[in-house]
Hints:
By secondary structure, the protein is α+β, with helices and mostly antiparallel strands. Helix content is 39%, strand content 31%. It has a single domain (6-10, 15-99), classed as Alpha-Beta Plaits (2-Layer Sandwich). The model has no long low-confidence stretch (mean pLDDT 93).
Amino acid sequence: xxxILIDRLTVPANAKEEFIERMNINRAIIHQQPGFxxxxxxxxxxxxxxxxxxxxxxxxxxxxxxxAREKVQAAYQQEGFDLAAFxxxxxxxxxxxxxxxxxx
Length: 104
């Protein structure tokens, strides 16, 4: 069964460019992982103040998602990137969940 990782990210307007740059780095990593099916990003049409983004990545199964998480963490470690520190510094909040599609 596919595993769908959905993030809701609240991003201060002044952190938008750095957030998008970081998101694209992450996407480049996950697109290369076995079991990756596709991803989508949803951005606000009109907003004032903080921006809210939704990202969705679909994986073939739980094992593929778990392996991808490990690969992303390894890439972050190799790069010296600390996601938690980045989010704290930029004021970015992440709400994350794993879902299954009901209408398969």
